[in-house]
Amino acid sequence: MNENLPAQLARTDLERMRRYREMLDFYNGGQWAGRERRSERRLIFNYARAFVEKAASYLISGIGFTVEPYNNTDEAKERARKAETAIRRVYQENNLEQLDLETEIDGAVLGDAGYKVTWDTVEKRVRVTSPDVQGIYAWWAGDDMSRIWRIASRYRLSAEEVETAYGVKPTGKAATVTEVWTDSDFELYLDGGRLEAKPNPYGFIPFIVFPNLREPKKFWGVSDLHQIMESQRELNRAMSQLSRILELSGNPIAVLENVEESEDIAVKPGAVWNIPEDAKAYLLDLLQGGGINLHINYIDLIYRALHDLSESPRSAFGGLERDMSGVALEIELQPLLQKVRRKRIIRTAVYNRRNEMILKLLNKYRGQDFGDNQLRVVWGPVLPQDMERKVGSEQAMVQTGIHSRRTAMDEVGVRDPDTEFKRWLEERKAILKMNKELNAPARRNGARESAVPSRAESDGE
Fold this sequence. Notes:
With about 450 residues, the chain is of the alpha+beta class. The protein has helices at about 5-10, 15-25, 45-60, 75-95, 95-110, 160-165, 230-250, 290-310, 325-330, 335-365, 385-400, 405-410, 415-445, 455-460; strands at about 65-70, 110-120, 125-130, 135-140, 145-160, 175-180, 185-190, 195-200, 205-210, 255, 280-285, 375-380. Strands 4-5-6-7-8 form a five-stranded antiparallel sheet. A three-stranded antiparallel sheet has the order 3-2-9. Strands 1-12 form a two-stranded antiparallel ribbon. The relative contact order is 0.12.
């Protein structure tokens, strides 16, 4: 590999890094341009942050996954069940529900995000992390952006962390670590000097880099903030201006006509002004003539533009001005639903690839053979569901043979259909056994009783 690569990275993708810093500052409230003057009031109503976090919450609500074997044999089904259990354990060990939410927010702000899936040689388990995409560099094959052949990751560590992790003491208080990965090789650099070079122990690049929303023919993504930045700035300006007008109206300006000099003119209760006979004095009313409504109407216009451009209708924040049916609410939230769907298409491939990496590492380091399986992400509903109606619909689907029980469980949001079905079978077996034991002495006594009547008993059989 190129030993000068760490030095080259400092001059690579400068525009992308500048954009990341700009979006991050904007998300954190740096939404005014230029320096603030002492007499200037700059209010910040950070709707941009609210839009990002709201969309992220809708996106990952109720996420689950399943593993289905390509072969319909009992052995293949058992391996698929073990694979699903293993992935679920890795999710719990790495607290991926929280990590996914943080990564979604990070990706929505910066425009890109990523995961790193590695084997922890100390704890002997799979470790899933979300590296800072501001230190990620990617190379892809020609015009096929789905085929990444090299990834570099740069990050800073303190001298103590470097010594603990790599057994080397850097010259300064902190050092820049650079990891360079291809499918076949791995290199580690410390402050530009190569520390280690060896074959890739995994056989694949353990990074998944993905866009928040993809622009056609471009690898790096688009931030959710990009299209609302101007509207957000204008809202801050208009609200600050209105606030200043209201403040001045509460502390009115005294206007004197035909007066050459004035002193001790104060606007306060009981104040007496001495002015010449031909002079006039009055208070400037900035709210007269309904002028304040022009400002309010303009702010409402900006407010609606913000919701339109962010694809997050006001109803997504729980504020409904009228009662709406489920269908009407779905139509009202269509912009948000479409945005979430576009993101979920990207995330489905990401989560499936992450689960695939997890299974490969467990196979390599624990010798667990999970067979050839189909990985599938199960997304929860974005909108609140009428569960009673949904269950009734799925019950009819199962009874008519349109849906299997597993599919019905997926549709109503059961995260682990196989485990849930297994529990149902165990409960049913226990109930039938209890009925059989209770019914036997009852029949001997000439009675026909049971704690929970079976279906056959209910039908009179």
